[in-house]
Every structure is written in structure tokens, then in C-alpha cells.
């Protein structure tokens, strides 16, 4: 019973020294409850369990991180392509708007010239009628007086 008490006392003291596992730490796979940072005491009490050698665990994590890095780089590249597509689309849209404005200005300028010419022609026609009417009036008044 005394031995069992010492064992549980050692386990409690070792648990109080333990810290929660953080990213990059090797967590204790044998402790129940929250995952603690693996400590030497964990190894001492679970001798019958199979352990993964540190180099094997390192290589596994390295491969996992390499895969994650590749996925992130792929996502970054996809976003860069998307940004370039958006920039190109905006450029084409601006160019199309500029062409449309230029065409509109050209059409309205031609319409303005036509309206101004028509106005001038109309004014000349009215003035010509006025002169003609004046001549008739002057010619008719001299013929009637004779």
C-alpha cells in the first residue's frame, strides 16, 4: 500500500510539473485527459507501450508540414492568378469605356455640326424669303403708283 501511495504521489507531482502540449511539442499519447507535453515521467510509467522514435516522428511532421506548405503556396499562386485576371478585366473594361466615350463624342459632334448647318440653312432660307417678299412689296407698290 505504501508503494502504491508513493507511485500515485510521484504521478501527481510529475503531473503538476507537466505543461499542456503546444504546437511543435510532442504530446503524451498515454496520459488520459488533456494532452500534456511528453516528459520523462510519462515514459517511465508506460514502459509496455510502443513508442515512435524521435527521428521517425520528426520526419512525419516534416512531411506533413511540407505538404501543408505546398498547399499554401498553391493557394497563394491561385490568388495571384485571380488578382491578375481581375486587373486585366478592369483594364479591358476601362479601354472599352474609353472607346465608347470616343465614339459617342464623335457621333454627337457630327450631330451638332448637322444641326448647326441645318440652322444656318434655315436662317438663310427665311432671310431669302424675306428679301423676296420685300422686293415684291417694293415692286408692287411702284407699279400701282404709275
Care to describe what's here?
The chain has 146 residues and is mainly alpha-helical. The longest helix is centred in the last third of the chain and has 92 residues. It has 3 helices and no strands. It is rod-shaped, with a radius of gyration of 48 Å. Helix content is 78%, strand content 0%. The N and C termini lie far apart (161 Å).
Total helix count? 3
The residue fraction in helices comes out at: over 70%
Alpha-beta content class: mainly alpha
Low-confidence stretches: 5-9, 12-16
Order of helices and strands: HHH
Tally of DSSP β-strands: 0
Q: What is the average per-residue confidence, as pLDDT, rounded to a whole number?
A: 79
Could you write a compact summary of the structure shown?
78% of the residues lie in helices and 0% in strands. The chain has 146 residues and is an all-alpha fold.
Topology at a glance:
Layout: H1 2-17, H2 40-45, H3 54-145
Annotation keywords:
rod-shaped; 146 residues; 3 helices; 78% helix; mainly alpha
Amino acid at each position: 500500500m505504501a508503494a502504491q501511495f508513493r507511485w500515485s504521489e510521484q504521478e501527481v507531482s510529475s503531473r503538476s510539473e507537466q505543461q499542456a502540449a503546444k504546437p511543435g511539442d510532442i504530446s503524451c499519447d498515454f496520459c488520459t485527459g488533456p494532452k500534456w507535453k511528453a516528459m520523462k515521467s510519462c515514459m517511465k510509467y508506460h514502459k509496455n507501450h510502443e513508442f515512435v522514435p524521435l527521428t521517425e516522428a520528426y520526419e512525419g511532421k516534416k512531411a506533413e508540414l511540407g505538404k501543408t506548405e505546398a498547399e499554401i503556396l498553391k493557394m497563394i499562386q491561385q490568388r495571384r492568378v485571380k488578382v491578375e485576371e481581375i486587373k486585366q478585366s478592369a483594364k479591358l473594361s476601362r479601354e472599352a469605356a474609353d472607346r465608347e466615350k470616343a465614339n459617342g463624342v464623335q457621333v454627337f459632334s457630327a450631330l451638332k455640326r448637322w444641326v448647326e448647318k441645318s440652322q444656318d440653312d434655315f436662317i438663310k432660307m427665311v432671310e431669302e424669303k424675306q428679301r423676296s417678299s420685300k422686293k415684291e412689296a417694293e415692286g408692287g407698290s411702284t407699279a400701282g403708283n404709275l
